[in-house]
């Protein structure tokens, strides 16, 4: 936050601007735009173009093989009566509302432990970060499938204690839980950010608190959490946005069908099935825009709520 | 190649450049423009269908789904064709069934469809009615030697959009090793009933080590449902493209599945779900975990290869215990189709003609895609068939007199049916829905899938 205010004060510099400076500015801008060009072309061609196209398609009946036909709000009214879509929303919300807080809590906990000045910190940091690099990948999802299968590692261990575990990912009552667990396991990137945030908290607060006889828990609640709240907020926003869009894990673990009995049918997975499996690309586009609205709303709520709990120390 | 060539002044320190700042800036700007242009060019080079090159060679893309074994035999057929037609190159694109249809739909939408497409009966109406497939009757493919029923399966309102690649039938395959280990005799498929199926499977499970079951569960595809419905006087689809059964019919099918599950004749619900995702080589039958399983006849050779032991082809059980009441049918295992937007329809048709009618193609493909529909090719390759292929061909011949009426072709939207069956089968197996409720919901969904 402070960096931004510095920047703005720089541009509000007092004094007249000379012609020479203006010309130099313009030249610099031109060069800047030219350097931006590759990215800009990519953004327009690969992101904005298809997005506008999908906005148009959202109001059409488009089966991929024939030209789209304008149907107005038809796709959106269909969404109201689509029970599988409602189920996919329920699955996705459960995933986000359970998975994200859990993952952030674990990330914060590990960050706090690592922050205690462990020897070999870079090593542990890398080890804990590793799942984040792997977590979204196909290979790990396949591994997860093996570990939590009916005859997988988890059940083999349980069998040693005489417990017959269920097929964690093939039983509808536990399948979503095991995917949430996979998500929590990839706590590395929020952890790294928390760790950086913890390093930023001035030691003098803790020293002052110790002089006043504060306990460890009090220090955590009264100093660490408030000082860390902007970082928590940042992680929360990012993770919520990311989790709403998560696709790969459920796709691989369920074999692409969101099963068993739609228990891991994420919104994005249903969207994919509609669009590419059932030749209903118009409907899939409408779903994509609906998801955008949901994510937008969540982010807006997050920002509004942040006024009440995020503490900026400036 | 350096992205941003250093200005001359930088590499030659002795020289005194005029206006150093501006020259450097201009050079940098040029570099950036070049980089941007390169990026744009790289982007535009990604797409685009195969083109004929300057020397007159035509490149065709050919996509199919199937096992490793199928890839080998198909590549051999391609090689035989290319040897005869040096100016046509065939580029193979193949993969698993599960990803095949998503990919094909995307390619067709992007106007990037393969020139030659392996089609399935579930999707051929969908693609034909939407103008994505070429009417092959206009391109001089010889159909005179082809089995008539198989040929007709590729005809529809939009012309001849697929040439049958093989004939197969729904079967139950048995792994004799599992039966032997359990000390249970293989059933007599000419007289067995569904009660026998249940009793024998449960017995095998009881006498086998934990994790081995007498039979794989049905409920993951429409073939086994189709047989059940036909034996009960119904059908999957009617000839006017509607659903041919009621919720109570499919509920009865699930009732029996639940009964099988409760008697442990088939694996637990969780194991059924896991088995669904397994490829052919990892299937319960191939790994010796199932004594009986539901497969298409042409899949026997690939399954035997994966199992490393002999398998036996059985007829489906019937209600009456008479082979004549099993109500099986000949199915076109798959079709050769061509994209309606191919740049080289003549060459694509030539290749399809080769696959369908040339003995050399037959010698490569043998019975991997089912029994050859071309009677001459079938006779010519007889001596080349492997023992597994011979078993399949024999079975197809044996059941000829017992066949039921040919089923109505799957209507548009039928590609979604299998997924619906699978989903509600697991709802039933996990006791989340009663069979009656599952029947009602499934039929509703199926109706809307094939009416849209």
TrEMBL record, chain A:
Domain of life: Bacteria
UniProt similarity note: Belongs to the binding-protein-dependent transport system permease family.
Biological processes per GO annotation: transmembrane transport
InterPro entries the record matches: ABC_transporter_permease (IPR051393), MetI-like (IPR000515), MetI-like_sf (IPR035906)
SUPFAM superfamilies, per database record: MalF N-terminal region-like, MetI-like
Residue ranges with Polar residues bias: 1-10
Matches recorded under Gene3D superfamilies: MetI-like (1.10.3720.10)
Positions of the ABC transmembrane type-1 domain: 89-302
Region (Disordered): 1-23
Annotated compartments: Cell membrane
UniProt topology in membrane: Multi-pass membrane protein
Name of this chain's protein: ABC transporter permease protein
GO CC annotation terms, alphabetical: plasma membrane
Transmembrane regions: 32-59, 93-114, 126-144, 176-199, 220-241, 247-272, 284-305
Keywords attached to this entry: Cell membrane, Membrane, Transmembrane, Transmembrane helix, Transport
Keyword Cell membrane: yes
PANTHER family: ABC TRANSPORTER PERMEASE PROTEIN, ABC TRANSPORTER PERMEASE PROTEIN YESP-RELATED
TrEMBL record, chain B:
Domain of life from the UniProt record: Bacteria
Pfam short name (any one): SBP_bac_8
Biased composition (Low complexity): 1-20
Ranges for region Disordered: 1-23
Stored PANTHER family: ABC TRANSPORTER SUBSTRATE-BINDING PROTEIN YESO-RELATED (PTHR43649:SF11), ARABINOSE-BINDING PROTEIN-RELATED (PTHR43649)
Protein name: ABC transporter substrate-binding protein
């Amino acid at each position: 936050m402070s960096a931004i205010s510095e920047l703005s004060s720089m541009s509000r510099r007092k004094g007249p601007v000379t012609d020479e400076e203006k010309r130099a500015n313009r030249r610099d801008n031109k060069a800047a735009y030219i350097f931006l060009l590759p990215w800009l072309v990519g953004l327009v061609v690969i992101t904005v173009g298809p997005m506008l196209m999908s906005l148009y398609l959202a109001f059409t009946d488009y089966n991929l093989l024939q030209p789209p036909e304008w149907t107005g709000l038809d796709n959106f009214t269909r969404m109201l009566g689509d029970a599988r879509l409602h189920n996919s929303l329920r699955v996705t919300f459960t995933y986000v509302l359970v998975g994200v807080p859990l993952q952030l809590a674990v990330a914060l906990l590990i960050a706090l432990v690592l922050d205690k000045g462990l020897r070999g910190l870079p090593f542990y940091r890398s080890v804990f970060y590793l799942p984040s690099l792997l977590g979204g990948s196909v290979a790990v999802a396949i591994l997860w499938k093996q570990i939590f299968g009916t005859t997988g590692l988890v059940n083999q261990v349980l069998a040693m204690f005489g417990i017959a575990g269920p097929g964690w990912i093939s039983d509808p009552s536990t399948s979503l839980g095991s995917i949430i667990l996979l998500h929590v396991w990839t706590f590395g990137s929020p952890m790294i950010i928390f760790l950086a945030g913890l390093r930023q908290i001035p030691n003098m607060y803790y020293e002052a608190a110790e002089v006043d006889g504060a306990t460890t828990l009090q220090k955590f609640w009264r100093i660490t959490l408030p000082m860390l709240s902007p970082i928590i907020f940042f992680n929360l926003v990012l993770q919520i946005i990311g989790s709403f869009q998560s696709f790969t894990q459920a796709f691989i673990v369920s074999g692409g069908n969101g099963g068993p009995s739609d228990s891991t049918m994420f919104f994005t997975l249903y969207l994919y099935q509609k669009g590419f499996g059932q030749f209903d690309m118009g409907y899939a586009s409408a779903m994509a825009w609906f998801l955008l609205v949901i994510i937008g709303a969540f982010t807006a709520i997050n920002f509004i709520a942040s006024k009440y709990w995020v503490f900026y120390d400036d | 190649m350096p992205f941003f060539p250093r200005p001359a002044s930088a590499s030659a320190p002795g020289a005194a450049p005029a206006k150093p700042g501006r020259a450097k800036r201009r050079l940098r700007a040029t570099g950036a423009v070049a980089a941007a242009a390169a990026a744009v060019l790289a982007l535009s080079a990604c797409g685009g269908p195969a083109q004929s090159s300057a020397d007159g060679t035509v490149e065709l893309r050919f996509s199919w789904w199937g096992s490793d074994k199928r890839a080998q035999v198909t590549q051999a057929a391609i090689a035989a064709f290319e040897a005869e037609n040096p100016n046509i190159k065939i580029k193979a694109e193949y993969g698993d069934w599960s990803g095949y249809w998503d990919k094909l739909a995307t390619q067709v939408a992007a106007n990037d469809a393969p020139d030659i497409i392996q089609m399935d009966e579930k999707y051929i109406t969908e693609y034909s009615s939407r103008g994505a497939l070429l009417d092959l009757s206009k391109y001089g493919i010889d159909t005179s030697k082809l089995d008539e029923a198989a040929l007709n399966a590729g005809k529809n309102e939009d012309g001849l959009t697929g040439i049958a690649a093989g004939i197969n039938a729904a079967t139950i395959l048995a792994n004799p090793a599992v039966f032997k280990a359990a000390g249970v005799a293989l059933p007599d498929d000419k007289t067995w009933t569904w009660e026998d199926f249940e009793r024998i499977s449960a017995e095998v499970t009881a006498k086998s080590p934990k994790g081995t079951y007498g039979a794989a569960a049905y409920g993951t595809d429409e073939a086994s449902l189709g047989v059940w419905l036909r034996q009960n006087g119904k059908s999957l689809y009617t000839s006017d493209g509607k659903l041919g059964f009621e919720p109570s019919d499919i509920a009865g099918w699930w009732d029996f599945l639940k009964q099988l599950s409760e008697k442990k004749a088939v694996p637990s619900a969780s194991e059924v779900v896991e088995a669904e995702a397994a490829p052919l080589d990892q299937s319960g039958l191939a790994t010796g975990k199932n004594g009986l399983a539901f497969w298409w006849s042409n899949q026997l050779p690939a399954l035997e290869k994966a199992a490393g032991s002999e398998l036996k082809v059985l007829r489906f059980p019937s209600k009456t215990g008479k082979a004549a009441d099993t109500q099986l049918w000949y199915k076109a295992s798959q079709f050769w189709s061509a994209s309606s937007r191919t740049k080289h329809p003549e060459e694509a048709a030539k290749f399809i003609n080769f696959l369908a009618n040339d003995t050399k193609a037959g010698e490569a493909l043998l019975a991997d895609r089912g029994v050859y529909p071309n009677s001459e090719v079938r006779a010519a390759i007889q001596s080349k068939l492997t023992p597994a292929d011979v078993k399949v061909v024999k079975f197809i011949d044996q059941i000829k007199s017992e066949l039921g009426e040919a089923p109505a072709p799957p209507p548009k939207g039928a590609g979604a049916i299998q997924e619906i069956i699978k989903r509600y089968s697991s709802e039933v197996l996990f006791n989340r829905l009663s069979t009656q409720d599952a029947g009602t919901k499934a039929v509703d969904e199926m109706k809307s899938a094939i009416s849209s």
